[in-house]
Design a protein that fits this description.
This protein is 78% helix and 0% strand. Helix 1 packs antiparallel against helix 2 and helix 1 runs antiparallel to helix 3. It has one domain (3-95). The chain is rod-shaped and about 75 Å long. The protein is built from 3 helices and no strands. The protein is mostly helical and 96 residues long.
Amino acid sequence: MSIESIKIIAAILSIAGSGILAFRVTGILSALSLVASAHEINIQQLMPNQQGNILNLGNSTAHVEKAQKNGLLITGFVLFVLSGVLQLIALVMANA
């Protein structure tokens, strides 16, 4: 395999890894934002001068539990590591 091919594969793996990680981080932040908002609303409803409708925002932790699935997160990191290894191999081959 040529050095150029290894560099191209490394770049593809890096792009795929960063895309997967960005997707997962966005999902995790979305779930955490939802839970933080629900928590804030629940706290405000406990205040003594609360007026208006009482909202039931229970089971919001289910969103965080759903976001904690690690399959894609691990895949993204593995692709990044493979990209780094391939870049190191290409560097060694170029200097040999």
